[in-house]
Design brief:
Elements: H1 17-20, E1 29-30, E2 111-117, H2 125-134, E3 140-143, H3 145-150, H4 152-160, E4 164-167, H5 180-198, E5 204-205, H6 214-222, E6 226-227, E7 232-233, H7 242-252, E8 258-262, H8 269-284, E9 288-289, E10 291-292
Helix pairs in contact: 2-8, 5-6, 7-8
Length: about 290
């Protein structure tokens, strides 16, 4: 299977953050189950059940950053839906049609998101799941439909552990080279096999190679999915060495950062080993590892 990289510059960093207005995603992120119990970034929360922490309204993309002085306790917090208006059959609002993918998630404390692409793969995904389970954190898995189709039990294991499952197309093509109907087929077929397997359709998608176009944004929104890219590319698909992958993650760590790694598409033993090394260091450094909540 092909590896994720941008069409221009081969895995170069996306240079569109200034256009994105990432503050809107402050309405998406929730630690909750995804948080790291016992490792708060700030003062410990009060004992006993905690009510949701309200989040002030934030501007839409392009309207500037989050309001000054917004602070959240390290405990679980739940955020409001991203948009009002059209709703899916389950009552969830359909997202707006984006013009850019999200590159990072909101700066709410020291929170980071770990993402893994191209799986599930029985050779490497179980090792990643074991490490995440050992530290009681959640991640995002952007899966390819053709991999899900032959490894459904493994996808169920991912879902049972509370991780977020995203749509990464059926066969990992360059979407910008497909017709609109071709893109629809790749995305719909993948969402269908995910829903058949775990009982829920994905709410997030990621274009293979980071190659997005108007059709993919429109169709993703039509299917109820938000587009998520990444902040830090570990370039683990190049097998640069476990130490190099660890260094790239630690050097790129920061509030709201989304890390891109892989659990399939080639030899991912270095990616599995690197996670074992950098995850405890991120947690010891005060970062929470979370997944977006919609």
């Amino acid at each position: 299977m092909k590896k994720d990289q941008l069409i221009l510059g081969r895995r170069g960093m996306l240079r569109i953050a200034a256009c994105l207005g990432v503050a809107v995603t402050a309405r998406l992120l929730s630690t909750g189950e995804a948080g790291t119990p016992g490792r708060p970034a700030g003062p410990p929360p009060a004992a006993g059940p905690q009510a949701p922490v309200p989040v002030p309204d934030v501007p839409a993309p392009g309207a500037g950053g989050p309001p000054a002085g917004v602070g959240l306790r390290p405990s679980a917090y739940r955020l409001q839906p991203l948009t009002e208006g059209a709703r899916t059959g389950l009552g969830r609002p359909l997202p707006p049609v984006r013009h850019q993918p999200f590159l990072e998630l909101p700066e709410l404390g020291h929170t980071m998101v770990l993402t893994f692409d191209d799986g599930p793969d029985p050779a490497y995904t179980p090792g990643i799941l074991r490490t995440l389970r050992a530290h009681d954190v959640r991640a995002m898995f952007f899966v390819c439909g053709e991999m899900v189709d032959v490894h459904r039990d493994l996808l169920r294991e991912i879902a049972d552990d509370g991780h977020v499952i995203g749509n990464h197309s059926w066969s990992h093509p360059q979407m910008t080279k497909l017709t609109r109907s071709g893109i629809r087929g790749e995305m719909e077929r993948t969402s269908e096999v995910i829903e058949e397997t775990v009982g829920a359709a994905p709410l997030w998608y990621r274009a293979p190679y980071g190659a997005w176009n108007r059709h993919s944004f429109e169709l993703g929104a039509e299917m109820g999915m938000e587009p998520l890219a990444w902040t830090v590319d570990t370039l683990d698909w190049t097998t640069p060495g476990t130490g190099t992958i660890v260094r790239r993650v630690l050097d790129g760590a920061g509030p709201g950062v989304v890390i891109l790694s892989h659990d399939a598409g080639g030899d991912r033993s270095q990616s599995v080993a690197a996670l074992r090394r950098y995850l405890p260091r991120l947690l010891d450094g005060g970062y929470r590892i979370a997944v977006p909540h919609r």
